[in-house]
Write a structure and sequence with these properties.
The protein is mainly beta and about 750 residues long. It is built from 5 helices and 42 strands.
């Protein structure tokens, strides 16, 4: 499937320019101790799997407009970040996500998973994860022991590592959008608290429309984080506190016109910066049995307290523990174009289903107890992990009609009043729903690692996940007369209002095994070979698999989780002024059977994927350096429900993705540009309609006014490149309507930062 010409050109470009700066943070990254997804801390060079560490300074320079945009600079990660700062689709190594979210990845803060599962509808883990100046680095591993060191993460782990205050100091920064409505304040400080205790505290607050025109201040809120830590003679302990209260836009697809081929034109909404948001809460009241969602976009609330520590009992035996409790809820409210049509009186129009979901409770508790024995050349670790995850959501979709003439005004159609129908007949009134589940899981695990001679290191690990799911779900719809707007009468669109039907029971269990074996052989001080093989599973969120639940609440075990088998082989090179990491990977993926709301179909797919990850750096001297990565992926559908599309390429799976960042550093300033590119993709599994390849350029410039004060300029998508990440139609004739999700156009911001 690789396009030969593009492949050659891309590889040539990488050979000439894909190199990374050994600037202020580069050497630190290469020597940084990796604690994410490994049985024992190690370095990038010595690990038996693919590892990436992004220093915080690099992340800031990339000018991300959402958390998901950070992930684009990690090899193997294809991040569809066009949804904004919540509800992103994130894939790894050609492992598709048929229904959304990040099923095969674990998003973590300081080693604590944000969620037990990665694909809960309208409540994905990234929705509650924010990057700010309290983060010291972003670590990621792909494959290998990711499947055994964390639950439901066979594809990999992405971990935000917080500052602990071991370095005295802090900063305050103010950021303002220059061509879009956004303001943000970041503040952090850390140092010695008392004696051997250190602390770090910080966070951010923001306000504005965000990168797209939303006709209201839809970005509003922030977070505060605090860490207190101490190292003892024989151990350590650290406490983490976080409070997030943040509202962000969630961009769903918008209508457009197909021009033929892979070309599309705007239809009433600008593709670069337009949205369908129209302060809909003012005219689409909620039904009186379900509380109203306050505002548009995603409102995330999370309060968590975590503690982790270790103690060396003897010269051989060390114990460790981790525990976090988190209260999490939110609201998801965003317009989805269910159908685009031509109305006789109003011209091109769109039938909007307003995705209005209360995330009542997705709080969770995580705990981990372990013992590690060090026998010199062999280390053994055994532990028990526990998770308790609530999933309580209420879907309350409304429907209304809007013109696509640029005004986006609302008009009546059928039984609507003021354009609004109190339901969603576009989806057959499928989506008045209520879910209330609890997941309880335990996972005993064991790992062995060691060295043979001076050059060979190895590790092996095993994990047994066992989940019990209990709760109720309401997916049947009861149509009743209901005075929704409270005007004292049952109007036309209130004659048959969908309400929650009878509840059904869910009571089932799921278990699966995960394992990993890896080796690393150092041919010299700067050249090493590594290989690993692994297998792991990923539990489906129970709201995704209700179509498989029987009348007694039971479910077939193999319909409730997905499995991944992986192999990777690679080489690592570290020079005086360069580094090169090349990894071959292969994966077999079998997805759980689940229901997709927007297409009203069951999905039950299997895939094969293989390719290469290339991560390299070079310091040219004379203040100039470049960094970058390239991922080549060949993915194929090998099984579907009914047999259709077998042999095709999975939807929205790129043959290649890359990032390249050249930088120049002078005495008082530095500048660079971060190029992020993706190959063309098929919109749907039928492999008919395509989205073109695109490259975005993200410019950064930093000027050090004095020792304390710095001015920064960032421009995301500098050249206003057009690109699309998601589409609802699998085919389109010229002149027909399509629904697509475009990337943001150019947004430029300036930051003033004071260090103290």
């Amino acid at each position: 499937m690789f396009k030969p010409v593009l492949k050659i050109l891309t590889l040539a470009t990488m050979a000439l320019t894909t190199v990374v700066a050994h600037g202020q943070d580069s050497d630190l990254v290469l020597e940084e101790i990796i604690v994410t997804g490994v049985a024992k801390p190690t370095t990038k060079f010595e690990s038996t799997m693919s590892v990436t560490a992004l220093p915080a300074a690099d992340v800031i320079n990339f000018a991300p407009r959402s958390t998901a945009e950070i992930f684009r600079n990690i090899p193997g990660i294809q991040s569809e970040s066009s949804s904004g700062d919540a509800n992103a689709n994130v894939k790894v190594r050609g492992m598709p996500i048929s229904s959304g979210g990040a099923r095969y990845l674990s998003f973590q803060e300081d080693g604590f998973p944000m969620m037990a599962v990665g694909d809960t509808a309208f409540a994905t883990a990234d929705s509650f994860l924010r990057f700010d100046t309290t983060v010291s680095s972003v670590q990621s591993i792909r494959g290998g022991s990711a499947s055994t060191q964390a639950g439901n993460s066979p594809g990999g782990i992405i971990n935000f590592i917080s500052k602990t205050g071991d370095v005295e100091g802090g900063s305050i920064g103010f950021t303002a959008g220059l061509d879009y409505d956004a303001m943000r304040l970041d503040l952090e400080y850390g140092g010695v608290l008392s004696g051997d205790w250190t602390y770090h505290i910080g966070g951010f607050y923001r306000s504005g429309e965000g990168p797209r025109d939303a006709e209201e201040s839809i970005e509003q809120g922030g977070q505060i984080k605090a860490t207190i830590a101490r190292d003892f003679d024989r151990g350590s302990i650290r406490f983490h506190l976080k409070h997030l209260d943040d509202e962000v836009p969630t961009y769903l697809p918008i209508p457009a016109i197909a021009n033929g081929g892979s070309s599309f034109s705007a239809l009433g909404t600008d593709l670069s910066n337009g949205t369908l948001f129209l302060n809909t809460t003012d005219f689409a009241p909620r039904r009186n049995d379900i509380a109203a969602v306050d505002g548009d976009g995603f409102e995330a609330s999370m309060t968590s307290l975590a503690v982790a520590g270790d103690y060396q009992f003897t010269d051989i035996l060390t114990g460790a523990f981790k525990y976090r409790t988190a209260s999490i809820d939110g609201n998801f409210a965003s317009p989805f174009p269910a159908n685009t049509f031509v109305d006789g009186a109003n011209g091109p129009s769109v039938e909007i289903v307003y995705f209005d979901t209360q995330v009542n409770d997705v709080g969770n508790d995580f705990a981990d107890l372990s013992l590690q024995a060090d026998f010199g050349n062999v280390q053994a670790k055994a532990g028990l992990a526990y998770v308790s995850q609530d999933i309580s959501t209420t879907w309350n979709f409304n429907q209304y009609y809007r013109r696509l003439d640029g005004s986006l005004s609302v008009f009546d159609q059928g039984d609507s009043i003021g354009g609004v129908l109190y339901g969603n007949p576009a989806f057959g009134n499928c989506c008045t729903r209520g879910y209330d589940f609890q997941i309880d899981g335990t996972a005993p695990y064991i790992s062995l690692s060691g060295e043979i001679g001076e050059n060979l290191s190895w590790d092996a690990s095993y994990r047994k996940d066992d989940f019990a799911i209990d709760g109720t779900f309401q997916e049947s719809t009861v149509l009743v007369p209901l005075d929704v707007n409270g005007n004292g009468s049952i109007d036309g669109n209130e004659q048959a209002v969908p309400t929650l039907g009878a509840a059904r029971r869910a009571d089932y269990s799921v278990d699966y095994d995960s394992w990993s074996v890896g080796v690393n052989y150092a041919l010299s001080d700067n050249l090493a070979l590594f290989a690993n093989i692994s297998e792991g599973g990923s539990l489906s969120s129970p709201d995704r698999v209700t179509g498989n639940i029987q009348a007694d609440g039971s479910i077939q075990n193999d319909t409730a989780y997905s499995s991944v088998e992986q192999v990777e082989i690679g080489v690592k090179f570290l020079g005086d002024n360069s580094s090169l990491f090349v990894t071959y990977f292969s994966a077999d993926i079998s997805e759980a059977r689940e229901f997709e709301v927007t297409t009203q179909t069951f999905l039950e797919n299997a895939y094969e994927s293989s390719g290469f990850e290339i991560e390299a750096d070079y310091d040219f001297g004379s203040n100039f350096a470049i960094k970058g990565s390239l991922t080549l992926t060949d993915a194929e559908i090998v099984k579907t429900a009914g047999g259709a599309n077998v042999g095709n390429q999975p939807r929205r799976q790129a043959d290649y993705i890359f990032n390249i960042t050249p930088t120049y550093t002078a005495d008082k300033w530095d500048a660079g540009i971060n190029f992020v590119g993706t190959d063309e993709v098929f919109v749907q599994d039928n492999n008919d309609l395509k989205f073109d390849a695109y490259i975005t350029a993200n410019l950064f410039f930093n000027y050090q006014i004095n020792d304390k004060l710095r001015l920064s300029l960032n421009s995301n998508n500098l050249f206003d490149e057009e690109g699309f990440t998601e589409g609802e139609e699998g085919s389109a004739t010229p002149g027909s309507f399509v629904r697509i999700r475009p990337i943001n156009g150019r947004t430029t911001s300036a930051t003033v930062r004071y260090d103290f």
